[in-house]
Amino acid sequence: MRLKCRAIQFLGLWIGLSAALPEVFSASELIPGPTPQYLSSEALQKSLTQLERRRIRSYNQGILVETLDGQKVLADHNSEEVFNPASVMKLATSFFALSRLGPEQRFQTEVYGDSALDGKAKALPGNLYLVSDGDPSLRSSDALSLGRTLMRRGLRRVDGDLVIVGPFSLYSDRYPVRNSGDLLRRSLSRVGIRVKGKVRTVSVQELDLSAKVLFMRRESDRLRDILWLQNAHSINEIADQLGDILGGPEALEQFLIENAKIAPDEIHVDRPSGLQFNKMTPRAAVKLLRALNAWLEAHEMKMQDIMPLAGIDEGTLFGRFRDPQIYGAVLGKTGTNPVKDGGVSALAGMAFTRDNGPVFYAIFNSHGSITAYRRWQDHFLKELIEENGGPGDSFLLHGGLSPINVASYWVPSEYWSSLDEETYKQPTRKKAKPSQRKYTKSHPSGSRRVGN
């Protein structure tokens, strides 16, 4: 009788707890999923042994390869340890930007003046304003293009200031840009437009654009195309600008915790580009890839829409994975930092296997030679794919080579069409008389090289 009473009390307690649990836990948190099946990988063991023979310690390497559903683990080594992911962090920034802005987002940049131009003096009496909503794809060449377009319209001098409104940034392939406003001023000067005032920054709220004259506007390409460019060529400036306009490293880190279900101790974001001291476990990287892939599929996109195809697409992976046996079977994002953690090389993405279908992989190497690690990554991943039946499929058969267009132009506003064409007509140059000198071909027909 006493046992029966205890059973009734226990049952009542369980019913009471069950009623309260949904307020705190979801069903998926209460019921653990199936335990993943860990497969033995000879490719992994041989590759790690190869490193140890070169006195490269295996504890400085982190690797995880899983099937898309996470139910099979093809390779696992130090997957719970944190490493520096370097530019693999750009995949996290890509996910963040897509989720917050949408893949079809286009950024707007506009140029205003305080007043119309003084046609006779070829001058702007007041300030010149550049208003930006954060376009991360603006380059130093775009600043020169803006200057040339304004100059062709008759502008030679700005009597006021150059005023930057909003999160404006420029980047260059040749040198670091410390101050985008100063670079814009130098670009204008380079093409013949002198700014007499200073460069200053104001917020959008401080400016009444309705009282200004719109001169030029530029619309960026789609965000999805900008992200492909960022990830293919690993452009730090694009990633950092995107991260900044979306809230910075802390906001990105919180987004990953909430949306990729990454534990706080698995991730640390110092820079959205992956520069400096970022931290991530290989398991966190695979969680990120899985969440990103699910988001892309839900929005009718593929991973190759924002990541390069190794050995085929231009960028940091163009010269890798070109073996005919795995050609077109590897998507990836590289990560390189030669000055942190003794030399960092990372690679993460998707690959095809015949036996287990598409898989997610994350490979983090540190404290070693970048060049040697890249060769090791290529060899290990090739051997792992072969170990699982070969590729069996190709991203090329799944819309792999999407057309990417990342070229936008400055468009003159209607203001210019309202002006008297004669006011800003450019002087015509006399045509030179054709030379009577005869030339001989220095190259046989068809022998001149174009490109390399």
What do you see in this structure?
The chain is an alpha/beta fold and 452 residues long. It folds into 2 domains: 37-103 and 224-398, 3-Layer(aba) Sandwich (Beta-lactamase); 108-220, 3-Layer(bba) Sandwich (D-tyrosyl-trna(Tyr) Deacylase, Chain: A). The protein is 32% helix and 18% strand. The chain has a 6-stranded mixed sheet, with helices on both faces. A 6-stranded mixed sheet has the order 10-8-6-4-11-17. α4 (89-101) packs antiparallel against α7, α4 packs across α8 (236-245) and α4 (89-101) runs parallel beside α10 (282-298). Mean pLDDT is 87; it is low at 1-32 and 437-452.
Return the domain count. 2
Estimate percent helicity.
25-40%
> Nearest-angstrom radius of gyration?
28 Å
Fourth-tier CATH superfamily name of the largest domain: DD-peptidase/beta-lactamase superfamily
Structural class: alpha/beta
**DSSP strand count:** 17
Count up the helices. Answer: 12
Strand order of the largest sheet: 1-3-2-16-15-14
Tell me the CATH topology of the largest domain: Beta-lactamase
CATH architecture of the largest domain: 3-Layer(aba) Sandwich
Largest sheet: 6 strands, mixed
How far is the N terminus from the C terminus? 91 Å
Global geometry = elongated
Topology as H/E string? HHEHEEHEEEHEEHEEEHHHEEHEEEHEH
CATH class bucket of the largest domain: Alpha Beta
